Amino acid sequence: VQLQASGGGLAQTGGSLRLSCVASGDVASITSMGWYRQSPGKEREWVGNLLQGGKTNSANSVKGRFTISGDNTKSAVYLQMDSLNPEDTAVYYCRADVTSVEHSLIYWGQGTLVTVSS
How many CB atoms lie within 10 A of CB 110? Predict the structure, then answer.
């Protein structure tokens, strides 16, 4: 599985950005897709994910501001980020999980930088 993330950039406080992540390869094996982020000097943190069947989960820090959605026809997951603030500045990574009885694999995209100015 390969992941290609896009959509990062510069936004002002209160603004919006939309990230996209498209999977290729053995997409039929993917059991969930999601987003993580890493700010300078901090651990990578979970933002949210989209499970098979369409259920989404998100971190408390972004709940109500960020929305995760997906497009099965494009094997894609999106992250709509609204009401951005400088604390959202980070490199955002797309992740795909392939979980079966035999194994559990994790794939990462290359990361896309989001910068929010005050």
Answer: 12
